[in-house]
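This week, study the protein below.
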Amino acid sequence: MREYVYENYLQKNDEEKKVRISIANYFKDKETDERKIYEFPYQLYNLNDREGMKNALKDSKWLLIATEDRNSSRYFELTEYIRFAYGDTCIGIKESFTAEIPEELSLKSIYLMDIGILYDFNSCYGEAEPLFKQALEINRKIHGEYHPSVATALNNLALIYYEKGKYAEAEPLFKQSLEIDRKIHNEAHPDVAASLNNLAELYEKEGRYAEAEPLYKQSLEIFRKTHGENHPAVAQSLNNLAGLYKEEGKYAEAEPLYKQALEIRRKIYGENHPNVATSLNNLAELYRKESRYTEAEPLYKQSLEINRKIHGENHPNVATSLNNLALLYYEEGRYAEAEPLYKQSLEIRRKIYGENHPNIAISLNNLALLYEKEGKYAEAKPLLKQSLEINKKIYGENHPDVAQSLNNLAEFYYEEGKYAEAKPLLKQSLEIRRKIYGENHPDVAQSLNNLAGIYYKEGRYAEAEPLFKQALEILRKIHGENHPNVATSLNNLAELYDEEGRYAEAEPLFKQALEILRKIYGENDFSVASIFFELGTLIIARIIEEKNPIYCNEARSYLIKARELFLRLNYEDPIEKTNYFLKKLDELCPK
């Protein structure tokens, strides 16, 4: 409504300014309520009155009202107004809300946790941690050990450690919170279910999937028992268990759970609700992982449409929807369609969070990877460096996101053929990941694999082989045999043997990788077509080496299958290569 009034009735700048000052003065001395925190700061913002905004932010009731619903626009506007007033959000939160903290202990505890959560939202983890510790201490003093408020405070502190990548410090706190909930309530209580879920998320992040799964299942069972089937908590539990299965490559098990969650949410909320948009997005993400792009795209678009309808343009959920749709286009090679979406997502996130936030780092990284694919290396490199710099500023050196940023910058240098520059970054990434996770984690396997890839490119096959084997061993230990990453690892080791002329060792590995990928994706996937191609060319090499035409039909069969799939999937360059080798095969094996 206010935008309509300004657009249609306030055409002159002087007139508009007078009206805004009048509205601001009207609300200035009013009792703080939802109406005031909606209108008063909006006028100060449009009047560019930073000092007025600083004074307004000192009203503690604003924080309490805004934090009632952390998904509402007023919560995101609060962050934007703090950054407008102070430039730096972390400094602004401190200046605005920590000067006059209530003395009454129970109110002080609530206030400290609200400020801590606001710090957390803005990635001010160092500032959030002592506040959560104070809140925990106060709640223990008021209530003793076994009280819901103590469990909540422990959980909040654990989440900060989780965000900082300090998983060993987070775990005992999550466990204490769970123990308290179990002692206060019986086993079948929603708070117990929530604590089980939080501990499961930690285990999932650490790659401890076998430990996470029973906790997710217990949480789901409790929510079903306490709430029945059609409840938001049940939908969320189904979603979380599906997410674990997706990470494990158990796509067939994940899909029905995502669909159930979506069905429940539609039943509860109707179509236009953030949770429905989230379910659509999650199902689309699964389809994208399976290369089911034509099924994923309309779901991403529906999710984006719902988020825009509910939140308007400048909301984290809209930014996420834009980013994920762009990622789909990126994977399909539709780079011209992906770029503006990535840029819109980045613009929205900058407006909400400022510059130093993990989501900004993600957006910069994604845009950089797009430029890299397009061969725009001069544009990609500074974005990857900015992404790394932001993550280091937020988290310090030893964090999973820093390790991933180092890995991505190394892959950029790898693509440029600058192996000497890539290698130390990959080694740093590997060192950080080993420090955080130990040896058996998918990210450690990724680092080993990528470092092996450098040695492979440098012709240092004896150094590459043990790293490829370690990566494969870790992935098999974590995922079992039937996972896309296991197939990729088998393929990498096979390519090494192929390059060394160890065809008898390479062939069974290619075939194992092919079997896994066909089981997961079916026939219509680029990776399946690629292995058909690799097998065809490997067998041609054997024919040449052994001067034995007995393998001709097998080689031809693989190459024809590869060509059919490349044609079906509209990949032109591999089709040309495949035709070249088919022609070569015809010369070696005349029909």
Observations:
- The two ends are 77 Å apart (CA to CA).
- The longest helix spans residues 526-546.
- The mean pLDDT is 92.
- The chain has 30 helices and no strands.
